[in-house]
Inverse folding.
């Protein structure tokens, strides 16, 4: 029985027709179009739906709209008045409290409720007030800063901030010189360009968009891990009023898709077999999401169940169920790499240690669920709004599956609420929405639920690692041998690259004279694993760092000292022929050791307290594109042989100057997913244009507007897109120079642009306003436009199989020290503190860099001690939700110090390289070492749970604990919410 | 994740709610904070045709003292309970539980009545309220029944609430002098993690320092918030000591019947029970000793 109710929202009355089952979040979002209130889980676990009722924060997904009555509701839209931000909103903007922004409205509201009651809360009080708001990006550091410093934003809106000058040290050549120290855009912690939109709820994410006449789709997943689809009966679903269309395997193209061109092995919907629980089988489009959800459950599928295999070692056994005909013995990718003479190296070693480590199943779990809206223009252009980190690859793959030219596909990337690798490929949502939309002639929206996100997967590969390290008496590495089994799940996804990455980036940190890597990426009946922050490297890095610490202890060498003795040095070619340029790894080690007071603490803390070190680094962008050849519909391309150079530029930018010269519009397809690329690209472009960043607007969301960029993966954006935007800026300035020279009456070669002026080098007072020169140019020539492009250097990598993976123009380095307290009776770990120093080249925006480090520390620490996607023996996920799959809350996050060492990368724009992924890598090993240091025992199986710690202390094994015992489903009623 | 179609009834009095409950019988459910019920409905764990909201019955939202007993209205939210000075002064052990329960947004919605009536084995209030010798007040148009919590829970998600009865409040009797209680629980995460294991303990000391009476209850490791009589037997008449508490902890472990699930194995939960029992007892003792002064 529906009811007409008048709500009081943000001081305004809204009269709405409400159904008894409607929750407040849906009435706010769908009924009132107040989309600043987000949906991330629908069951109270994430806090993105937080609103205030009578000033009290509540989860609007747990409130029945009909039950609210006349109580006053405040949503994020109700805080700022006439675009004047509240002090706490300003604080979030200026203190780095915002990244992807998906948690931000809820955070800001929770903070507002706290500060209303208590203007000067303690850190503990802040943590208690915000513990119900998960954030996956910031590591909570910026958020705590924002709330505790809110006072500073009360009067004039800014607190006194130091201007970070550019580092002095410049050890190489770069195409662009920072022209002067003041008023510069590069090297300054300007607030994110999108922060104000995010703290006010104005940022528009895909699911916030409603197109006229739009309908909704939902996908049915397989209930079994492995089977043949015998028969699908969709008649009941079709008969449900409101259902518009149903798709099954027979309705979708026969073309397979995926990520690695050599291994396209997915259909949009299963045609013959299902290969994991949740594997997509059928889909429904209906007038609303509720109907679509109901209809999907009415689809009747008959399966012939096949034996399944969940363990990668079992999958390799003779007679194991074969998941794909094409992968013999379920081996999806086999890597055999050997450099130097490993056996000889071991023979010459003074000490050898061999250990086995296992990783965990980690899911990125960005706060924003994947979403997609497809529609077709009358001229046959597909317009796809999608929450992705790789708009170009989505365009490429849609073209491939739908057999239409790339030019007929327009990809729009609205604001993205985090990705971490989980949104780095085309999803069944994109493809089903496109098919439905074509069939129905209406826009179709599809969104994953949190549970569906887990079932779709693409998280980190769980890796089983056997490592053997041989060293001299002084700890110098002689030889290293590794065998890794990667649990790939049911499809290839990024897996080919993952399998290679697992081995290729280890030798960039330490000098390995002899190195062997045997890799097996195995198919199992689980959701496909994909690329996640640090792609393939974090678990091997964790294992290696642990092993190095064990060896140091064996030899009585300090763990930091053993790293000094093996540290990579600048301008080196690694044993596997990776070309390392700038490298301040040693400086990060020294800095972190000093700052954390390592020498006073290591082995000197009381039992239960521990300190540990871990190091790591990553590529600054993959040296090669994922697919071969030029940008073209794959079916039209001939067989392409591999060439050791980029065929086309990986990053491309256009800068267009407004006709009055007052604004610049930067167009580039680089994907802002929360990491801050729009901001740092704006800064670099503004710097090369010679105008303040505030005069620049960036358009990165629409492939119709912005030229191709390969996207946000492999930490490529700062370096590669940074070059493209800077070159575009330089191109504009070059066009302006003759006009400026004329106005200033000097030689063209003497003109410089900076801070909104063009002037004569050395005589800054002889200047003209930048805009005046731009206008003069326009008067004579029409549009003032510059373009820039970037191709990675030719010839990167060696000449062996797989040599391209791990190549990059530049490598980052970092060292982290972790301090923990362990409750030796329960095994519970509290991560107290992290000290991290990084070499990321020139920091374009130090606040953004620290934000990446803080986020990486918490994400990395969380995956080391808490996170694991667990499966039962039938291959069903036991915790596909945020109360079972635990990520750190603000109360769990450590205090973090993030520092940077002076560094300059000649191959990077303004000397910059990456930070986002590299900063994850030291974390896991540092946590593991600190726990070992506190307890006296090593736990080599991730995650290092309290239970495993207790078992290790008791000398028991830490693998295969019956956590998901057979009797679980029957007795699950004992536990709360333990579906 | 949507709630299946239902009917919704807003009630203004217990009498009205009770009539509706009687009329719709097993096809209806009381709706309080909704933090269990709406989640269960969305997850399709349960289904119902009628939701009967009692959220607008103001009389159920108060915490009062009646003849020395504390009476907590069923609609008291966890936040109200947590912030109540009366509760802090008289039963700080309740705050041991409220402090670690869920998170602010949920605590603002979740009610005491719902936490008890759900009868979910890992709920935090039932163990401590049982250890405090609390009773629930069950109201229907036929009259009021008072049922001690130790008899109220019948199994996971099963209680002694009869058809058309509404849990209107909880009564905690005066504890007398020299009394202390505590609640110790273990969660995997600092914020928003439900209990993996929990133990509540209460005890009274006699003038000569021996334990007069004691009650230990279990959370999350048994189908109901079970009272461990064996532990009381170990403790009563003895002088408190670490060794004694260790013995009581052993008895508590023996009474536990945990399962293995994503949060931990049964074996690990038993280890936790041993630790938590000792911690709860030590804290209860400390409070009893403070109470004696
Ligand atoms: C994210 C999250 C975290 C949580 N963490 C914890 C935790 O750490 N510890 C913990 O103990 N709990 C936790 N919970 C559960 C907790 O919120 C609930 O148990 C809550 O106390 C239930 O109260 P409610 O008012 O929301 O009940 P509702 O959901 O409204 O009702 C629950 C059940 O009780 C019945 N009921 C409610 N009130 C009455 C009444 N007066 N008379 C008769 N029947 C009634 C309803 O019909 C329903 O079956 C959590 C929940 C969420 C969503
Ligand atoms: S959507 Fe409401 S808490 Fe996650
Ligand atoms: S900024 Fe918090 S989830 Fe992205």
């Amino acid at each position: 029985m529906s009811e007409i109710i008048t709500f009081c929202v943000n001081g305004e009355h809204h009269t709405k027709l409400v159904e008894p089952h409607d929750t407040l979040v849906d009435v706010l979002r769908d009924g009132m179009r107040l989309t600043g209130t987000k949906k991330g889980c629908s069951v109270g676990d994430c806090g993105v739906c937080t609103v205030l009722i009578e000033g009290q924060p509540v989860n609007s997904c747990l409130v029945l709209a009909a039950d609210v009555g006349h109580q006053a509701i405040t949503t994020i839209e109700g805080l700022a008045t006439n675009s004047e931000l509240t002090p706490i909103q300003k604080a979030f903007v200026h203190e780095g409290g915002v990244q992807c922004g998906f948690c931000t409205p809820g955070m800001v509201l929770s903070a507002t409720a706290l500060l209303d009651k208590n203007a000067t809360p303690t850190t503990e009080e802040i943590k208690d007030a915000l513990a119900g708001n998960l954030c996956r990006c910031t590591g909570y550091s910026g958020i705590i800063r924002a709330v505790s410093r809110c006072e500073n934003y009360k009067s004039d809106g800014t607190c006194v901030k130091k201007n970070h000058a550019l580092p002095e040290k410049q050890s190489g050549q770069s195409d662009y010189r920072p022209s002067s120290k003041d008023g510069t855009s590069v090297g300054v912690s300007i607030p994110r360009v999108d922060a104000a939109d995010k703290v006010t709820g104005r940022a528009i994410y895909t699911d916030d968009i409603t197109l006229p006449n739009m309908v909704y789709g939902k996908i049915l997943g397989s209930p079994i891990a492995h089977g043949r689809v015998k028969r699908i009966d969709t008649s009941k679903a079709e008969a449900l009023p409101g259902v518009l269309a149903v798709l099954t395997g027979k309705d979708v193209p026969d073309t397979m898709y995926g990520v690695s061109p050599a291994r396209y092995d997915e259909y949009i919907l299963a045609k013959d077999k299902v290969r994991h629980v949740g594997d997509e089988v059928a889909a429904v489009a209906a007038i609303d999401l509720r109907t679509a959800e109901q209809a999907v459950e009415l689809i009747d599928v008959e399966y012939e169940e096949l034996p399944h295999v969940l363990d990668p070692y079992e999958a390799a056994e003779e007679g194991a169920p074969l998941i794909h005909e094409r992968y013999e013995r379920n081996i999806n990718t086999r890597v055999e790499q050997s450099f130097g003479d490993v056996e000889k190296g071991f023979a010459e070693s003074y000490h050898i240690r061999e250990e086995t480590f296992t990783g965990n199943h980690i899911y990125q779990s960005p706060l924003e669920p994947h979403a997609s809206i497809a529609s077709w223009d009358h001229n046959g252009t597909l317009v796809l709004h999608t929450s992705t980190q790789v708009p170009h690859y989505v365009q490429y793959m849609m073209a491939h599956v739908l057999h239409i030219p790339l030019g007929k596909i327009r990809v729009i990337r609205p604001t993205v609420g985090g990705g971490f690798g989980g949104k780095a490929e085309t999803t069944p949502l994109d493809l089903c929405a496109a098919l439905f939309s074509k069939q129905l002639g209406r826009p179709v929206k599809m969104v994953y639920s949190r549970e569906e996100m887990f079932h779709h997967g693409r998280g980190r590969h769980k890796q089983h690692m056997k490592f053997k390290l041989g060293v001299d008496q002084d700890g110098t590495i002689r030889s290293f041998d590794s065998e890794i089994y990667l649990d790939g799940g049911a499809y290839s996804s990024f897996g080919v690259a993952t399998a290679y990455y697992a081995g290729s980036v280890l030798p960039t940190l330490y000098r390995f004279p002899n190195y062997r890597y045997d890799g097996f990426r195995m198919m199992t009946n689980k959701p496909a694993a994909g690329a996640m922050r640090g792609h393939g490297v974090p678990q091997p890095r964790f294992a290696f760092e642990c092993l190095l610490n064990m060896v140091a202890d064996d030899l009585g060498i300090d763990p930091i000292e053993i790293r000094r003795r093996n540290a990579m040095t600048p301008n080196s070619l690694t044993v596997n022929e990776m070309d390392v340029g700038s490298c301040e790894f040693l400086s990060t080690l020294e800095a972190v050791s000093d700052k954390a007071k390592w020498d006073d603490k290591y082995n000197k803390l009381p039992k239960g307290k521990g300190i540990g070190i871990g190091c790591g680094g990553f590529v600054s962008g993959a040296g090669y594109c994922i697919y071969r050849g030029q940008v073209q519909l794959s079916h039209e391309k001939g067989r392409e042989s591999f060439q050791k150079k980029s065929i086309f530029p990986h990053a491309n930018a256009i800068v267009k100057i407004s006709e009055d010269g007052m604004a610049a519009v930067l167009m580039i397809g680089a994907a802002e997913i929360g990491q801050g690329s729009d901001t740092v690209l704006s800064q670099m472009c503004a710097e090369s244009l010679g105008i303040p960043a505030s005069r620049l607007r960036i358009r990165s969301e629409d492939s119709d507007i912005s030229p191709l960029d390969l996207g946000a993966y492999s930490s490529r954006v700062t370096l590669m897109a940074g070059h493209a935007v800077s070159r575009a800026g330089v191109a504009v300035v070059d066009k302006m120079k003759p006009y400026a020279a004329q106005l200033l009456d000097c030689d063209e070669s003497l003109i410089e642009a900076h801070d909104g002026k063009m002037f004569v080098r050395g005589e800054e007072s002889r200047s003209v306003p930048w805009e005046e020169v731009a206008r003069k140019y326009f008067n004579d020539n029409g549009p003032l436009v510059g373009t820039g492009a970037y191709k990675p250097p030719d010839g990167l990598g060696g000449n062996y199989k797989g040599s391209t993976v791990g190549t990059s123009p530049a490598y980052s380095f970092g060292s982290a020290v972790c301090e923990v307290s362990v409750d030796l009776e329960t095994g519970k770990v509290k991560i107290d503190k992290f000290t991290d120093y990084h070499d990321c080249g020139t920091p374009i925006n130090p606040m953004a860099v620290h934000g990446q480090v803080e986020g990486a520390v918490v994400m990395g620490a969380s995956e080391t001690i808490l996170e694991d996607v667990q499966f039962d023996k039938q291959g069903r996920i036991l915790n596909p939700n945020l109360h079972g799959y635990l990520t750190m809350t603000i109360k769990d996050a450590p205090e973090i110090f993030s520092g940077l060492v002076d560094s300059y990368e000649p191959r990077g724009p303004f000397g910059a390289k990456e930070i986002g992924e590299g900063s994850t890598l030291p974390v896991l090993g540092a946590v593991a070492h600190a726990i070992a240091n506190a307890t006296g025992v090593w736990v080599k199986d991730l995650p290092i749970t309290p239970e495993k710690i207790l078992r290790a202390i008791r000398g028991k094994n830490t693998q295969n604990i019956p956590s998901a015992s057979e009797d679980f489903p029957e007795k699950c009623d004992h536990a709360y919410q333990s579906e | 994740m949507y709630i299946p179609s239902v009917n919704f009834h807003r009630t203004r009095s217990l009498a009205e709610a009770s009539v509706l409950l009687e009329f719709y019988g097993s096809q209806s459910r009381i709706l309080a904070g909704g933090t269990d019920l709406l989640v269960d409905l969305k997850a399709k764990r349960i289904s119902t045709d009628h939701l009967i909201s009692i959220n607008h019955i103001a009389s159920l939202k108060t915490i009062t003292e009646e003849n020395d007993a504390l009476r907590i209205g069923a609609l008291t939210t966890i936040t109200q309970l947590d912030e109540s000075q009366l509760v802090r002064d008289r039963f700080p052990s309740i705050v041991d539980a409220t402090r670690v329960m869920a998170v602010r947004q949920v605590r603002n919605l979740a009610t005491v009545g719902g936490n008890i009536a759900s009868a979910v084995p890992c709920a935090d209030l039932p163990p401590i309220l049982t250890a405090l010798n609390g009773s629930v007040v069950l109201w229907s148009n036929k009259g009021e029944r008072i049922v001690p919590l130790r008899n109220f829970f019948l199994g996971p998600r099963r209680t002694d609430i009869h058809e058309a009865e509404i849990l209107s409040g909880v009564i905690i009797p005066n504890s007398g002098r020299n009394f202390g209680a505590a609640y110790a629980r273990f969660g995997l995460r600092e914020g928003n993690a439900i209990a993996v294991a929990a133990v509540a303990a209460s005890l009274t000391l006699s003038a000569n320092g021996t334990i007069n009476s004691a009650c230990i209850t279990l959370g999350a490791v048994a189908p109901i918030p079970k009272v461990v009589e064996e532990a009381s037997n170990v403790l009563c008449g003895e002088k408190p000591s670490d060794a004694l508490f260790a013995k009581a902890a052993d008895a508590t472990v023996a009474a536990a019947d945990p399962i293995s699930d994503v949060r931990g194995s049964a074996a690990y939960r038993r280890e936790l029970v041993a630790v938590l029992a000792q911690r709860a007892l030590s804290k209860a003792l400390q409070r009893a000793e403070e109470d004696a002064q």
